[in-house]
Specification:
single chain; about 300 residues; alpha/beta; Arc Repressor Mutant, subunit A; D-Maltodextrin-Binding Protein, domain 2; 3 domains; three-stranded antiparallel β-sheet; 10 helices; about 45% helix; elongated; transcription; HTH-type_LysR_regulators; DNA-binding
Length: about 300
């Protein structure tokens, strides 16, 4: 399978944007790597790389070839995992991108449960916003995404969707904690800690505020959901989260969770997905099946 080695070389050149940089990471000489690429360009009759004083950039032909490269590498990884499965090793790597809301509790629990069945499995998890997750999926950096409100992509195949409401997090002694359900207007005048604009939940809030003509007092915003919880715990601010990321039993002591009225913020989908027409490596396919079952089980539990 020597041809796969060169495909991995091309993939690394594309990722680093540099023949020299890729050669250093691959432990080959830059001249030898460049020669291999030039031989391929001569064979194809097309330039794959635009060589610049500082690095290289893919040509249009190079972009097409890179898609082929990553499809071939994906198929090879899937074949290896199937061979390992036949040998009874159950070994492999699951590559997944997820929203921050899943990173604190839900996804770690599911990884733990999965590894009890398949202890030789390893995981590469990237915690990113929904748009970045889609880019990683398209670039074959990850096999799966688990994100809230992903942007439209024709190549995305949803494996499982789970409607999610936004909930409010606050101290148990906050004046609004006495309410069973909140309206956004209730939060007027109270300091808020909100996630940055790249998150699906923040975008939902801003869209509703714009339509309703409401103005809330944003005292802090951050790209860290851990910091948001800390701000709620130590400053008395209110924050918002999708319900799967705000399980009451996973909250720090003294923080309570209250649903936001769906007249203000209707449910939106949490999506487990993969690229359409892509054959997943066996480890990722098995974990996708596990996650789908866990999400399906939550649909059978009435929302609190």
């Amino acid at each position: 399978m020597r041809h796969l080695r060169f495909l991995r070389y091309m993939d690394e050149v594309a990722r680093t944007g540099s023949i020299r940089g890729a050669a250093e990471r691959l432990n080959v000489t830059p001249s030898a790597l460049n020669r291999r690429i030039m031989d391929l360009e001569e064979e194809l009759g097309l330039k794959l790389l635009e060589r610049r004083p500082r690095g290289v950039r893919l040509t249009s032909a190079g972009e097409v070839f890179l898609t082929y490269v990553r499809e071939q590498l994906n198929d090879a990884d899937r074949m290896r995992s199937q061979l390992e499965d036949l040998r009874g090793l159950r070994r492999g790597t699951v590559r997944i991108a997820c929203s921050q809301a899943l990173a604190h509790d839900f996804l770690p629990r599911q990884i733990g449960a999965f590894r009890k069945r398949y202890p030789l499995m390893t995981f590469e998890v990237m915690v990113v916003d929904h748009e970045r997750a889609m880019g990683l999926l398209v670039d074959y950096v990850v096999d799966l995404i688990l994100v809230f409100r992903p942007p439209f992509l024709g190549r995305l195949r949803p494996i499982m969707t789970l409607p999610q409401r936004l909930v409010a997090l606050m101290n148990a002694d906050h004046p609004l904690a006495r309410k069973a359900k909140l309206r956004l207007a209730d939060c007027t005048g109270h300091p808020l800690a909100l996630p940055e604009f790249s998150t699906g939940g923040r975008q939902m809030i801003e869209e509703r505020l714009s339509r309703a003509g409401l103005k809330l007092s944003v005292a802090a915003e951050t790209n860290s959901f851990e910091l948001l919880r800390g701000l709620v715990a130590h400053t008395g601010m209110i924050s918002f989260q999708i319900e799967i990321g705000a399980e009451p039993d996973a909250m720090p002591p003294g923080i309570v969770v209250r649903p936001v009225d769906e007249r203000d913020l209707p449910s939106a989908d949490l999506v487990l997905g993969q690229l359409r027409d892509r054959n997943l490596p066996l480890p990722s396919a098995q974990f996708a099946e596990h996650l789908a079952g866990a999400l399906r089980g939550r649909m059978e539990v009435p929302a609190g």
